[in-house]
Amino acid sequence: MASCLEKVPRDILHHIVLLTTTSSPFDSPAAIFNLLQTNTNIHHTLSYKTCSHLYSSIFKAKFDLAAPTRRYAGHDGLKQDLWTALWMILESDGINEAQLAAARFPSFILTLLRSRAVQEKSLEQDDPDYEVLSLTIWLLWLTYSRRDIEGLPLHERQEILQVLRPFALSKTKSNLYHYPRTTLHTAASTVSRYERNSDVPCLDPTIPAITLTFALNELYPMVAPSHFPATRAVALIAQRTGPTLEDFQILESYKTSLFANSCLPFPSNSVIPPVDAKRSLRHDFEFSSLFSSDSYFTPGAFYIPGRLTGIWQGTYLIAPMPSTENSKVSPIENPDFACRQPMQCALSEYLCFSPNLPVPTDGSWDTMEPSPGRLLELEANFQDGLEICSRKYGYEKYIPASKVSSRICRNPSQALDVIIAGETLDDHDQAWGGFKFTGRVRRDGLIILKREPKNANETHLGTWFIEGRLNFEKNFVGRWRFFNPSLESPNSHGIFSMAKRACN
């Protein structure tokens, strides 16, 4: 005889069983065994093979899970699940991310990351837990929106920053001027993907860690000194230089873009998530960069010329100076970044096409000779600002196809080399000092810039060497180092984050 329970929808039946078996964490879940004996159909519906998630929920309600989650974070099954989630996000046109959000996956990732905050052990790249933690940082970066971060309690923000700090600072301890030509990622491991084993890289968490660090720091308002002039006009009348209250308001408006904020909003009265058919298409570039070692995916270019052209503005943070040999500081007590300051550059790109030759480099950037800056300052003849010509080299200024009228537009993807030149704008010069930039884009997509004061009398502002990457067409983030070979003490260094100003 058929049971009336067979007419109950499966999800409702599962919920009834869950409520019945978890009313008290100390009672035996014997009720589920009685239900299993109702008949064959109910037994199949409630069997472990059919609904393992139900038994997982019962287990979670009756036992402690924080310690197993923390202590077995390096398990291969967890690593496989994290990689699957990363692929889902990069392949998402909206539905994949909605599925992860419905499963409360971002909360799980946050819990997994916070479990690292209580551990004092520093991880190296050959540590079994390094890849899991790196994936966790990536997934927190990809799934948390600014609204999610704003809703975090203060102590959780601090715990996240503690975990991120060593990764945001990675490699800044070495001289950026002699930064080695490393790839985007380290050694590969093997995981299953679409029923095929694939070699995947151990992702470098530096860029996600820097981005999240800025997003968290931007939640704390900057307080301008009350005695500063209100506007630039007031400052000029009073014959005062430096920033104004208005400049601080502009500085406060700089916000680091987060990947999750680019999702289409999910209407509360809709059960179907919005689909953006071009969302995953926009991420093909990052996908090819991440999985360039995968034989199942054809790698693409690591940099598309034209992405840097424009006005970039944001902030930088100064890293804490290294502790002395006698001081003992645990990893969770590392001092925080300090002194958030504005950073701006209006950049132009110059592309070298065959049969012209690109400016050579010795591969180490030790001498920067002949460097892009040397070419631009000493050898170059500018022709209407559109070309750079010298005795040996030739570059054309990148101009978007929409703005090209009489000139023949060449395919930027065929460029042999990309040189960068730029400077700060007048408003930045008056408030924070003027700077000029020269540099180039490496073949692996790493952007290297040299920043110097515009005014020869302001050498005290120093020379900076900057390296960074573009991520998801939103941010230009990376690390900087003040360089002065005459100083015996360690040079200051830190991280930066800039976003492209919208065109008027």
How would you portray this structure in words?
With 504 residues, this protein is of the alpha+beta class. It is built from 18 helices and 13 strands. It has helices at residues 10-21, 31-36, 40-46, 52-62, 66-71, 76-90, 95-102, 105-114, 130-143, 146-150, 154-168, 206-217, 232-237, 245-252, 279-282, 284-290, 372-379, 426-432, and strands at residues 185-193, 196-203, 310-318, 338-352, 381-382, 387-389, 394-397, 417-423, 435-441, 447-453, 463-471, 475-483, 493-500. The chain has an 8-stranded antiparallel barrel. Strand 1 and strand 2 form a beta hairpin. Helix 6 (76-90) packs parallel to helix 9. It is elongated. The termini are far apart.
Number of helices: 18
Q: Would you identify the regions where 5 or more consecutive residues have pLDDT less than 50?
A: 171-185, 293-300, 323-332, 363-371, 373-385
Roughly what percent helix? 25-40%
Structural class: alpha+beta
User: What overall form do the CA principal axes indicate?
Assistant: elongated
> What Rg do the Cα atoms give?
27 Å
User: What strand line-up does the widest sheet have?
Assistant: 3-4-8-9-10-11-12-13
Number of strands: 13
The rounded distance between the terminal residues' Cα atoms is 73 Å
Nearest-integer average pLDDT: 76
Report strand %.
15-25%
Largest sheet: 8 strands, antiparallel, barrel
